[in-house]
From TrEMBL:
Keywords: Membrane, Transmembrane, Transmembrane helix. This is Uncharacterized protein. The chain crosses the membrane at residues 6-24, 36-54, 60-77, 170-190, 202-227, 274-292, 389-412, 424-447, 467-485, 492-510.
Length: 657
């Protein structure tokens, strides 16, 4: 194992610690909330640098500023005879836990070295992170080998980039970056309760949330809640973490107050379909600032201005990104790509969906799908009450638990104003949940093409984004209630109770060996084998050569896995399929029917230089063996490269990895 990878990551973590120290000392920020602010500012700077084409210099500048900032604080404190300023970054018990868990997580992932396991990690998330790291440029500006434009938001690939600054790209460091964002959100939530006896159990409860919300009953399948590089859970945790940041930073000075804006921008910049979560967080922060900040009518204008800024900052960032992407899509279309593949624009979906909901006439496309619209609504309601999505059971059970945590916070509140404030977050977040539900309903009916009312594709994953953030927000509000309780014993009991309930649910409802707590390297054997083949092929393939992948039985996963390693050399073809004579693949969901002549013409049309034959079967042999000089003899022994020759496709060497 490369110690250099671990050391490089430690350097970047030290830079983040230096940033947190400066924010705590100079900005008056709660030390438990400082890591989230540091990550948000880092992402914002890297996004701007990426758009300007200076990503790598910006990364080095950020790292240098973080390290030098920490050193400068130590030197200045020593000159003034003050205590070590680094202790300020560890003042809150939740901050101590954050940095301890971050270090443990870094070493644990370095030892385990997990690979990407999910389809979407290869079709976008991991590939975007790899392209960004290897090209020192936003993935949107890289040649992906895909016929469409990558348009998803940039927070996760940029977070990965920051922790990939030293050494070659490694999936485990991307996973660490996503985990650190979630961990920072947990620290901000637990940091609302500033005493160790309160913060520690709440931190434990927050750590359990991603796993609890994604394990639906005992299963022998690996739960990847802390072992994946996908946007769903980080988006949800940052939704709750952004509001928790505001609660932890409130009352600690103007600098801490305004640092809420970059945190809200981070929460809104993870996934396009979770942008609404960032807006929900902004709305909740704005309401709390307007209604419950001190100053009365005299400072109403200032509070209204801050509330407007909370909503405007993430919205402006989102619109800027969309304008940037629109330009790239036009360029892609002009160059022969697919351009914009959406069936309807989001504003049109919202407007016409609301018209259908209110019984008003809508545009023809939406009217034609009105029956499907209502079928999806019925299916989602049924799933909410009857489909298990978490350790706690159904979505209704998760909502009930969340509202119970809010109720405990209301009951613990020391006065009427505090009770109203806790109730505001409970009611406001419930309204936001209704809005998120509506957004998913419209998406299922009018945007998602791989779903039916019977299947509700990715239903648990989509709702997990909201459930995780909502539970984390409830824990943050509970932490404030525990800290302010008139009788401290009740606050301690509530915090311990929350930690105990969440820990017990994790122990009873999840199998440790199928989570981060007990995962073994054997879970990654199959993927590592394919990655090794792809890397071996990459070493053999010459620059500029076009490669066509043949892996029979693939449903797209392996094609995207190979593309992540070989892009932009890999030709799209059918994007992962079982190739064969039409009669042999008839009825297959991922069958690609080509006669031998048609298959040869396809390779000619795509100007293929190399065939990477990863896996063949009887169908491929019966259909196309005549096109290969050896009749596929070497391919049947193992993954093989073939080059075009006079006698057909000729073996060019094995690629066993």
């Amino acid at each position: 194992m490369a110690l250099g990878e671990l050391f490089g990551l430690l350097v970047m973590l030290a830079a983040l610690f230096g940033m947190s120290t400066v924010l705590t000392r100079r900005g008056g920020l709660n030390s438990a909330a400082a890591p989230l602010a540091a990550l948000a500012l880092t992402e914002l700077v890297l996004l701007a640098a990426g758009l300007l084409g200076i990503l790598r210099p910006a990364g080095f500048v950020l790292a240098a500023l973080g390290l030098l900032g920490g050193v400068a604080e130590v030197v200045l404190a020593k000159k003034k005879g003050e205590t070590c300023p680094l202790a300020a970054a560890l003042e809150n018990p939740a901050s101590k836990l954050f940095w301890a868990v971050a270090l443990a997580l870094e070493v644990g992932l370095w030892l385990l070295r997990p690979e990407f396991l999910n389809f979407d990690e290869y079709s976008f998330w991991g590939t975007a992170a790899k392209l960004t790291s290897e090209n020192n440029a936003l993935y949107t500006a890289c040649d992906t080998g895909l016929p469409w434009q990558m348009t998803e938001l940039a927070a996760l690939p940029l977070a990965s980039f920051f922790f990939q600054m030293f050494g070659a790209f490694a999936p485990w460091r991307a996973i660490f970056a996503a985990d650190l964002l979630m961990l920072a959100a947990v620290a901000a939530a637990a940091g609302c309760a500033k005493k160790a006896r309160l913060a520690c159990p709440l931190f434990l409860a927050g750590l359990a949330v991603p796993t609890l919300v994604t394990v639906a009953g005992h299963t022998a399948l690996l739960n990847t809640a802390w072992l994946e590089f996908l946007g769903d859970l980080p988006a949800g945790m940052l939704f709750g973490g952004a509001v928790a940041f505001w609660l932890a930073a409130k009352g600690q000075g103007p600098a801490a107050r305004w640092l809420t804006l970059p945190v809200l921008m981070l929460a809104a910049n993870v996934k396009s379909n979770t942008f609404v979560l960032g807006l929900a967080a902004a709305g909740l922060v704005a309401l709390d600032a307007i209604l419950f900040e001190r100053g009365g009518a005299k400072r109403l204008a200032a509070r209204l201005g801050f509330g407007a800024a909370c909503l405007a900052a993430p919205t402006a960032q989102y619109l800027l990104w969309n304008n940037y992407i629109a330009g790239l899509v036009r360029q892609n279309a002009a160059a022969g790509g697919m351009g914009d593949t959406a069936s309807a624009s989001l504003p049109a979906v919202v407007v016409n969906g609301l018209k259908l909901l209110l019984g008003l006439p809508a545009e023809s496309y939406f009217e034609a799908r009105s029956d499907l619209f209502w079928q999806y609504g019925s299916a989602m309601t049924d799933a909410f009450f009857h489909r298990d999505v978490s350790v706690f059971g159904t979505g209704a059970a998760v909502v009930a638990l969340t509202l119970a945590v809010f109720l405990a916070a209301v009951l613990l509140a020391p006065d009427k104003g505090a009770r109203l404030r806790a109730a505001l977050f409970a009611v406001g977040s419930s309204v936001c949940f209704a809005g998120y539900w509506l957004m998913l309903w419209l998406s299922y009916a009018f945007l998602l093409k791989d779903s039916t009312p019977e299947s509700l594709a990715s239903y648990p994953r989509y709702f997990a984004s909201y459930y995780t953030g909502w539970l984390l927000l409830a824990l943050a509000v509970l932490g404030i209630g525990c800290a302010a309780a008139k009788r401290p014993v009740f606050g301690r009991a509530a915090a311990l109770g929350a930690g105990a309930v969440f820990a017990a649910a994790l122990a009873v409802g999840a199998e440790p060996q199928f989570t981060l707590l007990g995962v073994s390297g054997g879970e990654y054997t199959s993927v590592r084998g394919e990655v090794a083949v792809a890397k071996a092929a990459k070493e053999t393939i010459q620059p500029g050569q076009k490669v066509f992948l043949i892996r029979q039985g693939d449903e797209g996963f392996s094609w995207f896995l190979f593309n992540q390693q070989l892009a932009p050399a890999l030709v799209y073809g059918e994007g992962g399929a079982t190739y064969g004579e039409p009669a042999l693949v008839e009825g297959m969901a991922y069958g690609a029917p080509y006669t031998a002549e048609e298959f040869a013409a396809l390779l000619e049309k795509e100007q293929v230089d190399v065939l990477l034959v990863s896996q063949v079967d009887d169908i491929f042999e019966a259909s196309y063996a005549s096109l290969f000089a050896d009749g596929l003899a070497e391919a049947k022994e193992g993954p093989t490269l073939y080059e075009k020759g006079e006698a057909g496709w000729t073996p060019a060497g094995e690629v066993t990895g």
